[in-house]
From TrEMBL:
Subcellular location(s) per record: Nucleus
Keyword line: Kinase, Nucleus, Transferase, tRNA processing
UniProt family annotation: Belongs to the CGI121/TPRKB family.
Keyword Nucleus: yes
Keyword DNA-binding: no
Family annotation (InterPro entries): CGI121/TPRKB, CGI121/TPRKB_sf
Role according to the record: Component of the EKC/KEOPS complex that is required for the formation of a threonylcarbamoyl group on adenosine at position 37 (t(6)A37) in tRNAs that read codons beginning with adenine. The complex is probably involved in the transfer of the threonylcarbamoyl moiety of threonylcarbamoyl-AMP (TC-AMP) to the N6 group of A37. CGI121 acts as an allosteric effector that regulates the t(6)A activity of the complex. The EKC/KEOPS complex also promotes both telomere uncapping and telomere elongation. The complex is required for efficient recruitment of transcriptional coactivators.
Species in which this protein is naturally found: Rhodotorula toruloides (strain NP11)
Main location: nucleus
Taxonomic classification: Eukaryota, Fungi, Dikarya, Basidiomycota, Pucciniomycotina
UniProt record, GO biological process: tRNA threonylcarbamoyladenosine modification
Annotated protein name in UniProt: EKC/KEOPS complex subunit CGI121
One function term, GO molecular function aspect: kinase activity
Entry GO terms, CC: cytosol; EKC/KEOPS complex; nucleus
């Protein structure tokens, strides 16, 4: 897991990538938690799954994801969230269009998800508390709900066993006919690098669009 303090925003971002085995059960739990009443049990269950759940096959790099996180944080600071929560806003920022349902369909957790990026955005703490949280608390919360193995964020964009869906990325970001990538062999290093630059730029420009 990696943690990124954002002093300007008063937030810390925690990110971990997993090879996940319980995607279907986890998605069911997310849906069920959203439907629980606003009592102590319901709030406790919602807190247990208080993350952005991003299908890692739709991420090209660490920067791609961090750009979406930064855009979501800025949107909340400006009072301009398009979704109900900061974590769901991360998914919306990854979506090149403006349809919230499409962002969940394209980038959210599905029963077939094999690689999952979990994002938790929390208030900035003291250096001592940040170190303690980064070294255990957030990761333990992730481990409590995810069945799988941790992976390096360096693998985003080149996950094994078909874990990165370059074809789907080109389609969602409407790059199938883009001259910059059309003639590049899918899966090649050059294609991956160009795709990463294009999709990350799209996310970075979304708020200004």
């Amino acid at each position: 897991m990696e943690s990124y303090p954002l002093p300007h925003a008063g937030q810390t971002v925690h990110i971990a990538v997993w090879s996940v085995r319980n995607a279907a059960q986890l998605r069911h739990r997310l849906v069920a938690a959203s439907q629980l009443p606003a009592d102590e049990e319901g709030e406790r269950e919602r807190a247990a799954v208080d993350f952005a759940f991003v299908d890692a096959k739709m991420l090209t790099s660490r920067l791609h994801l961090l750009t979406a996180v930064q855009q979501a944080v800025l949107a909340r600071a400006d009072g301009a969230l398009k979704t109900k929560t900061l974590h769901s806003e991360v998914l919306w920022m990854l979506e090149p269009g403006n349809n919230i349902s499409d962002s969940l369909k394209h980038f959210g957790l599905s029963p077939s998800t094999s690689h999952l990026a979990l994002v938790h955005i929390a208030p900035l703490l003291s250096e001592e508390d940040e170190a303690r949280q980064a070294n255990g608390e957030v990761l333990r919360r992730m481990e409590a709900i995810v069945e799988g193995e941790l992976r390096s964020l360096d693998e985003l964009g080149r996950l094994p066993d078909g874990g990165t869906d370059e074809k789907a990325l080109r389609k969602v970001y409407k790059l199938t006919q883009d001259l910059a990538v059309r003639n590049l062999k899918p899966g090649s290093q050059e294609a991956s690098q160009v795709l990463d630059r294009l999709v990350t730029s799209t996310v970075a420009l979304k708020v200004a669009m």
